[in-house]
UniProtKB/TrEMBL annotation:
Subcellular location: Cell membrane
Cofactor(s) listed: Co(2+)
Membrane topology note: Lipid-anchor; GPI-anchor
Source species taxonomy: Eukaryota, Fungi, Dikarya, Basidiomycota, Agaricomycotina
Signal sequence annotation: 1-18
Main location: membrane
Domain of life: Eukaryota
Keywords linked to the UniProt accession: Carbohydrate metabolism, Cell membrane, Cell wall biogenesis/degradation, Glycoprotein, GPI-anchor, Hydrolase, Lipoprotein, Membrane, Metal-binding, Signal
Name by which UniProt lists this protein: NodB homology domain-containing protein
GO CC, alphabetical: plasma membrane; side of membrane
Length: 253
């Protein structure tokens, strides 16, 4: 074999080897952060799921009376359509009082059982609704039933959202008498954990009986009642903040 041929073959072999060595590996999917506890000591982030409802103003007014803030995780079309006039007014009222609004997905479906397009649709539609109604795109999403998987986390990360769970379920939406819910709150307050991230719901008994009693007891125990974003160290509650839109025919469920 001629020397020139050997050189060509060696050069070709080296180039193939170099390409092989530098071939990129599989791209690692970015997963959304998942929070189930507050990170700032001595804080409590009261959260309320499954709204908007007619009890939003009662809850908001009680929190405002004590000069504390809560976080409301909204559906688009679960117990009522978010685009109904009264529901839009309640979302605006809660947001206007300085409480945090966030996503609980459009139809309260089990995200872990859905395909990627369905998950995106569940997230996108309620994000769009909140942007239209109060001008914000939420940075936090609570998966219904605390159900999620890596597919959900991947899609949430791509949409700029973190997942928020809870470390105390008040059980207020499971038929538990409000006196029992209050007793369970008292029990955990007496244990005085460093932080607390309770799950509540936007329902009548919670609005009229549980929240006034619990807020008073939490404050008496020395806790600061803040939003989820604040209890996580001052994260941004929203990806963007702008002006609300003007309702048109596309605002429907």
């Amino acid at each position: 074999m001629k020397t020139s041929s050997i050189v060509v073959l060696l050069s070709f072999g080296l180039s193939v080897s170099a390409v092989h060595r530098h071939r990129p590996g599989p791209v690692k999917r970015q997963l959304a952060q998942v929070f189930s506890n507050c990170t700032v000591p001595n804080t409590v982030a009261l959260t309320f799921d499954d709204g908007p409802s007619i009890y939003a103003r009662n809850i908001s007014d009680t929190l405002t009376k004590y000069n504390v803030k809560g976080t409301f995780f909204y559906n688009g079309n679960n117990r009522g359509c978010i685009y109904d006039q009264d529901n839009m007014a309640n979302v605006r009222y809660v947001y206007g009082q300085g409480h945090q609004v966030a996503s609980h997905t459009w139809g309260h479906r089990d995200l872990a059982t859905l395909g990627s397009d369905e998950v995106r649709d569940e997230m996108r539609r309620v994000e769009e609704a909140l942007q239209r109604i109060v001008g914000v795109v939420p940075a936090f999403m609570r998966p219904p039933y605390e159900s999620y998987n890596d597919n959900v986390r991947t899609i949430a990360a791509a949409r700029g959202q973190s997942l928020v769970l809870w470390d105390f379920d008040a059980g207020d939406d499971d038929g538990k008498p409000p006196a029992n819910t209050i007793r369970d709150y008292i029990d955990i307050i007496n244990q005085h954990p460093s932080t607390l991230l309770p799950l509540n719901h936007e329902i009548e008994t919670t609005a009229h009986q549980v929240v006034p009693e619990v807020v008073d007891r939490l404050r008496a125990a020395g806790y600061r009642l803040v939003t989820v974003a604040e209890c996580l160290g001052g994260m941004d509650p929203y990806q963007s903040v702008g002006e609300p839109g003007t309702p048109d025919a596309s605002w429907h469920c």
